[in-house]
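Sanity check

After download, print the first record. It should look like this:
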Amino acid sequence: MDSLILFGLFFVLLIIGVPVAFSLGLSAIATMWYLDIPIVVAFQRMTAGMNVFSLMAIPFFIYAGELMNQTGIAQRLVRFAHSLLAPVRGGLGLVNVSSCMMFGAISGSAIASASAMGASLIPAMKKENYDDDFAVNVTATSATTGLLIPPSHNMIIYAIAAGGGVSIGSLFLAGIMPGVLLGLGLMLVTYWVAVKRGYPKGVFPGWGMVFKYFLSALPGMFSALIILGGILSGVFTATESSAIAVLYTIIVAVFVYRSLTWDGFVLASKNAVKTTAMVLLIIGTASSFGWLMAIMEVPVQLSEALLSVSDNPLVIFILINIILLILGTFMDMSPLIIITTPIFLPIMTGLGMDPVQFGIMLILNLGLGVVTPPVGSVLFVSCAVGGIRIEDTLRSIWPFYLAFVVVLAFVTYLPATTLWLPSLFN
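Expected structure tokens:
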């Protein structure tokens, strides 16, 4: 009965439109009331879930991404990518994918990439007579590469949810190859659709202009190297690197580009505070929800149920991927990472999967969920920017989903896809 109250009330609240954070918190409080646990425990678990030093990296990485968006660094990345890829058929679509990959390596947020890149590239693609659904599909799916290419704050959340035994630096390294593979896969699909629909080619500006745009974008791209290099060399931790990312962005924007205005600084600060508050509230309520699952032994029961279906690791991997995909279409990534990691990580490690590999598999799978209805937060943002309905994208988005599935299969069944790069630095 206690499980029915916890999960039943949660899904009922979601269905009637209550925000995820409040759905998690209210269902946890109701279950504690039923179990005669003092309600104050719910708020204590929320506080404990948010009061983790490693989580300090999240507001700083979000802030760095907002500053880069407000100071034109993102636009310089787009201009450089456009100078290289414009001569290819459907070049603006390829620019969209590559720009999201570069911006994702700076912001670590799929929604930030979708809103920042979509605001400039979706109107540009429409102006060049690209179909609305194509522009939105490319933007939404390519924005998810930022979930894999470091720095990704979802990897930090996973490392904490895994009990602190997983290296954030190893996760950052492990996400590079899958992120690049996903980007390349989306580029292939983008080119195929562009050829099929007869989209135009652009004009090559010349290697001199390409080099000029490269130099202009280089300071922005260099921030990702500073972050990753500092962590791997041991100069600073992942949390410290996030603060350095903000400081570096401000220095570049003020002294190199001279593009940081007071209004832009205030707007970036407001957006970062708003996003951080939303993320941390979700993390806190998900921690309370997850604590209840643990004392109710939900992970143990689910593990026994899965292993009763089959003892073949390949079958269990497929089942868990399907479960994660279904859950990912209804909920945001942050609470799902906190809730599902304690459930599935012991199962996967017991079947021989490395915790780092599972972390990347989890994030990639949930990344597919954020561009899949009925919720699909990143797809929703992209549709809002593009001014079309989600239903209008569904008829043509399936080739982009196929790219996700192929990369997910590599990550799940070929450990070297995620573990090869970390092994070079261990």
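If your output differs, re-run the checksum step. Summary of this record's structure: Residues 17 and 363 are 25 Å apart (CA to CA).
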